[in-house]
Amino acid sequence: MLAYNRFSLKIASRTRHVAKTHARHAHARSGRVVIGVRREDPQRIWERRCPLTPEAVERLVHDGFDVLVQPCERRIFKTEEFVKAGAKTHGTLAPAHILLGIKETPLDELLTDHVPSSNVARTHMMFSHTHKGQEYNMPLLSRFLGDSSSDAGHRLPTLIDWELLTDVDGKRTVGFGWYAGVAGALEGLISTAHLHLTLGVASPFLGTPRPHTAPLPALLASLKLIGATISSEGTPKSMGPFIVVVTGSGHVSAGALSILRDTLPTQEITVEDLPDLVKSPGMKLSYLRGIYVLHATQDTYLFHRTSGERAVRKTYYADPASYESRFHELIAPYTTLLINGVGWTPSSPRLMTVEQTVSALMRVRSLQEELQAQDLDTSLKLRDVMKGRCLSFADVSCDIGGGLAFLPRSSTLSEPFFSLDLPTAFSGIALPHLGLPSLQIMAVDILPTALPLEASRSFSDKILPYVRSAAGGYDNCFGNSGLRTANIKNATEIQEALERATITSAGFLQKRHQWLQSSVDSFRVSSLHASQSSAYKGTTLASPPKKKILLLGSGMVAGPTVEEICRRTDLELIIGSDDSSRNAFLCRGRTNAHPVFVNISDQEEVSDLVKKADVVISLLPVPLHPVIAELCIENKRHLVTASYISPAMRALNGRAVKSDVLLLNEIGLDPGVDHCSALALLSSIRRDDKKIVSFTSFCGGLPAPECADVPLKYKFSWSPRGVLSAALNDARFLIDGKTVVVAGENLLHASIPNLPVSSVLHFEGLPNRDSLSYSSIYDLCESDGLKSLFRGTIRYPGFSDLLLSFKQLGLLDTHRALRISSYSDLIRASIEDLTDMAITQPASMFSAMSDLIPECDPSELYETLAWLSNIDDAAFPRPPTTATPVIDLFATLLSFKLAYKSQERDLVVLHHEIISTSRNSQVASRDEVHYSSMEVYGTHEHSAMALCVGLPVAMAALRVLDGGYKEVGVHGPNDPAMYDFILNGMKERGLNMCHGTRKYVKGRTVEERLRDNWV
To answer: Which of 339, 627, 838, 972 has the most CB atoms around its CB within 10 Å?
Structure first.
């Protein structure tokens, strides 16, 4: 006896009853399931594909299904062909149980009611582009989901996504990748031929046919003729060998390689062949009678950041962020055409960044000059084998700003390629503006539809078993006992695949997609407000109250916080500070953000704002956090800050617990992400029953190397006062079993040179506060074998020495106050006040500096001080009219002189090193080194520091607001419920930690560098 399959049971369970077929529905005969074939969105003018061929329709009709086809004159198959195969035409497909399409159904054509003839819910099968939470398609997904206030959800249709159909190993079984690769290769060759024409060279590929102009066999025949020409006449001598590089290991690269190998005289090459191929002097004609093809798989250009080993598939996919691409140096400079078939995610390395692309172009130029200098044959002087290299890109993957970071947009089949000038397109990045050639880019995002006949036939064959199984699931509703489903080959696997590919059923998201509900809810709330505003102008309506977050402070790191929170349209953000213009700027273009001017010193005014919020974020200066915390306790509101837990804050723990209030601190970068990543790494090591011998952690925010061209080699992306104050803090740490205490007055003498936290950049380090206070947080004890515990700050070499000179000149004094008329007078006034001597000329300045800093080089320091004092008073704020601490005045001066320019970017570096040994070890051995690191560069929109502080703060606040974190009292992010959430959120946004483990080797650890300093 055959059991009903699970898919049919789902359909049956959501159907209250099965009505008898109404005679007036002529298209749905009694007991027959109706399958509808949609026309594609009329706005997609190039979309000619069809999910089923006439032959497939004929087979379905033969199996006892009714098939309806929506008329369309643009479709690759004529409507008459479907009618001849046994289908009937229908304008709306209203009688259909199952509706099939390629792309998303237009909302005004989407059928979500039950099937009139049988009172059962429909099933839609399409590429819905909803399962990744694509915001633009939330209106579509919302139509498949019920309202909690309605009991009609069981009649809503099922949504099955073609993209989610996989085999038991998780590999996709349905798609168009192969045809995208074929079409992409053709369009890429055409684009390259046009590029070469602009360079003064006619390529044989000028005659390459566009993929949409003929069936695939005719296209292949035309390309074979071009191949024959190349075999006999060769490619243009002036440009050297024609090298095509294909990346990727999936269907896209398989399609591209297939058409190249099947039609052209190709020769397979390796990465190692590339230099000799273009450098061969007096290149023979035989070198040009073919096309050189390099299939660049990941192991050819991806290398581990630390070990330098080539990528191996298994280890790479376990931690892709630990790898970096060297495509720009090994492959790109030699390439005539790149066909990119590699997909990209934020956690994976880019094939080429913008900077790496520029580096590749500069390498092309240097090779060009090198080869021309070596070419002694004057008859070959006109030959330029580097002409046109690294300029033509066919990005089939079409990940905008993704694997090829310079890709700014997709192109269309109407205009398949475009030119891109890198310095113009990326004006915010420091790029050379002279001599960079423009790139030629083909990035059509619907390439398979250029081959609609072959793509549709292949697709139809692949989906037919799934369509049969889905249609057979309705058999139970008609009393057919699932017999047709039982006849499907691998029926159980097909049914399970359909379940995996189901996004919604009976008005509910399936378990693996339930995370999408918040996105749908946000869309619905925003739509409700928009419709109420439109329909009831002038009428006050009660709308669902939105939760509110109050953000106090609108400084340098607030941008990403605002951006992240305002992605949630179901809540309201109030931005309060005493900078009205900055508040308004942060709210611009965001309907759920509202600026409020507030005097932070007016506690009554601030308390009123706190009372109206559900969660408060304080990005105010550190001394103000306890004040805000007190107001939160009084009003029973939770608080989130990015700052260290001060003694004043910790003293509020009892009152916060009693008021059921959370005061969550240390949830920025340092402190914040550093804690989260350290706790996660320690937890993973302890799961392997390892004993911790050494824990060291360094973090720092710096200018990107190309921007570190100022005194201190430092620029400010956060509070200058905080940076200067940090240089005055005491420090305490453990090195090789010895507790070391460094007084704040000596901190700048305690720098660590040659800090080994990067294989590329040179850094120095400074101790950061009391490292031993983290022994309890991280559960690290000397009694359990711990020898070293150190937390430090990263700076470029020379920072500590120069800042020490500033300190000796009194510029970091907190208790000495000055009144100045201009910031250009500050340094002179401070030195005069310390030495009690008038400084009227350089000689007296040199004398004063020598008195205050006997060991310094006065000429070099004088130049730095002169540069800092050379200011335009009109561009600076007026100094305070009252005496002000020198450190505050100096912080203001530095905030202007060491500010980032509009095109400059910053860098955040975070590095943990943990040395472990076996728990059974009886001696203090060091067996393994575990590391976790992150490097983040600033973007056009936000600094790296703002991203690494602002995003965790926002995510933590949202976590608390949504009830995902239940603690009360004063806390840091020490609970897995918080630190795992933050790390996962950062990873989703491309800011992830890279982890690794290696055997302990003496002389290669941070701990040893620290031992050299203090033991």
So the answer is: 339
User: Hey, what amino acid is at 386?
Assistant: M
pLDDT at 527 over 80: no
3-state secondary structure of 158: strand
Burial class (CB in 10 A: 0-12, 13-18, 19+), 761: middle
- Percentage of residues in the chain having pLDDT higher than 90: 44
Mean pLDDT of 569-589: 85
d(CA 623, CA 719): 13
Give the tokens for residue 426: 């990326």
Q: Report the C-alpha gap between 955 and 942 in whole angstroms.
A: 17
Alpha-carbon span 78 to 167, nearest angstrom: 33
User: CB within 8 A of 307, min separation 6: which ones?
Assistant: 996, 998
Report the run of H or E that residue 956 belongs to, with start and end: helix 944-961
Q: Is the pLDDT of residue 788 over 50?
A: yes
β-pairing verdict for 638-641 and 291-296: unpaired
Is the confidence at residue 263, as pLDDT, over 60?
Answer: yes
Structure tokens at 6: 């699970």
CA 545 from chain centre, in angstroms, equals 32
DSSP 758-818: -SSS--EEEE-SBGGGHHHHTT--GGGT--EEEEEEEE-TTHHHHHHHHHHTTTT-SS-EE
The phi and psi torsions of 490 (rounded to 5 degrees) equal 55, 45
> What is the spatial distance between Cα 158 and Cα 814, in angstroms, rounded to a whole number?
67
Q: Give pLDDT tens digits for 55-105.
A: 999 999 998 999 999 999 999 999 999 999 999 999 999 999 999 999 999
Q: Is the dihedral of CA 407, 412, 416, 421 positive or negative?
A: negative
Which DSSP string do the residues of 866-911 spell out, in sequence order? HHHH---GGGSPPPPSS-EEHHHHHHHHHHHHTBPPTT--EEEEEE
Does 358 score more than 60 pLDDT?
yes
CA distance 815 to 757: 36
Q: CA gyration radius for the chain?
A: 33
Contact by Cβ (8 Å): 994, 934: yes
Which run of H or of E encompasses 523? helix 517-535
| Count of H-run helices and E-run strands, the chain | 33, 34
User: What is the pLDDT at residue 752?
Assistant: 93
- Whether residue 253 is predicted with pLDDT greater than 50 in this model: the reply is yes
Q: Is the pLDDT of residue 4 over 50?
A: no
Q: What does the block give as tokens for 168? A: 């038991």
Q: How many CA atoms lie within 13 A of 892 on its CB side?
A: 20
Q: Note whether 637 and 613 are within 8 A (CB).
A: yes
